[in-house]
């Protein structure tokens, strides 16, 4: 039931759009790392663009149950050649082999600002020097408390009360780095999209 509510409220809209916008920013044939894919509902709704761009995607998902569902869905969609699953936590890379690393709504599951900064560093360690890290996340500033309230209400089912991402968090995580921030939706600043240079 909670999965269904999550899909209706978040997965079918915001998250699917997050993946779509990220894939639009990938070049054909790129090798992509997706951090925290979950059961792949939002990722696989973008099957067309994955095939069109001939992307090769590795999904890192530590939840064995979600990873199993993800593998089943990949097989159902006939995407075994394009999308692979690794049941593991994101870690620092020994070699930077990806053109792009995606972190689509996953940053919030890291509980503290330090862990979020470490997550971004781990993402950066996986990409080649000219590669991209693309983060898609809902952002909370000072003015959008109404959205904050709605997030808390949905979080019981969708986000298990993860600590939301506040503007100050983000400033502290990204200060000193060169990032392009794009808002990709009319709900901005509720919607945030961040791309590294
Ligand atoms: C909010 S969900 C996002 C799922 C998917 N990216 C989407 O947007 O639909 C976060 C996912 O990250 C996974 N996760 C939690 N800790 C992780 C870690 N340390 N490394 C990689 N993934 C992690 C969770 O199991 C969960 O499936």
Describe the structure in your own words:
The protein has 197 residues and is an alpha/beta fold. The chain has one domain (2-196): 3-Layer(aba) Sandwich (Rossmann fold). The protein contains 7 helices and 7 strands. It has helices at residues 2-24, 41-44, 47-52, 64-76, 113-126, 145-155, 167-174, and strands spanning 31-35, 56-60, 83-86, 98-104, 127-138, 179-182, 191-196. A 7-stranded mixed sheet has the order 3-2-1-4-5-7-6. The N and C termini lie far apart (40 Å). The relative contact order is 0.16. The model is unreliable at 141-148 and 151-161 (pLDDT under 50). It binds S-adenosylmethionine. The site of S-adenosylmethionine has 18 residues, from helix 1. InterPro entries: SAM-dependent_MTases_sf (IPR029063). This is Methyltransferase domain-containing protein.
Quickly describe the structure.
With 197 residues, this protein is of the alpha/beta class. It is 40% helix and 22% strand. The model is unreliable at 141-148 and 151-161 (pLDDT under 50).
CATH topology: Rossmann fold
Total number of β-strand segments? Answer: 7
Q: Which of globular, elongated, flat, extended, rod-shaped describes the shape? A: globular
CATH superfamily: Vaccinia Virus protein VP39
Tell me the major beta sheet. 7 strands, mixed
InterPro entries: SAM-dependent_MTases_sf (IPR029063)
Protein name: Methyltransferase domain-containing protein
């Amino acid at each position: 039931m909670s999965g269904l509510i999550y899909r209706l409220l978040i997965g079918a809209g915001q998250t699917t759009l997050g993946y779509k916008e990220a894939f639009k920013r990938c070049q054909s044939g790129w090798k992509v790392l997706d951090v925290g894919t979950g059961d792949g509902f939002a990722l696989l709704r973008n099957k067309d663009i994955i095939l069109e761009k001939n992307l090769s995607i590795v999904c890192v998902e530590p939840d064995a149950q979600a990873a199993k569902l993800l593998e089943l869905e990949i097989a159902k969609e006939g995407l075994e050649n394009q999308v692979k699953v690794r049941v593991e936590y994101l870690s620092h890379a020994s070699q930077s082999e990806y053109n792009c690393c995606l972190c689509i709504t996953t940053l919030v599951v890291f509980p503290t600002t330090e862990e979020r900064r470490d997550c971004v560093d781990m993402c950066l360690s996986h990409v080649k020097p000219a590669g991209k890290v693309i983060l898609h996340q809902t952002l909370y500033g000072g003015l959008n408390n109404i959205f904050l309230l709605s997030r808390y209400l949905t979080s019981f089912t969708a986000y298990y009360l993860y600590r939301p991402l506040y503007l100050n968090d983000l400033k502290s995580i990204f200060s000193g780095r060169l990032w392009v921030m794009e808002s990709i939706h009319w709900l901005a600043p509720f919607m945030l999209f961040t791309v590294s240079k």
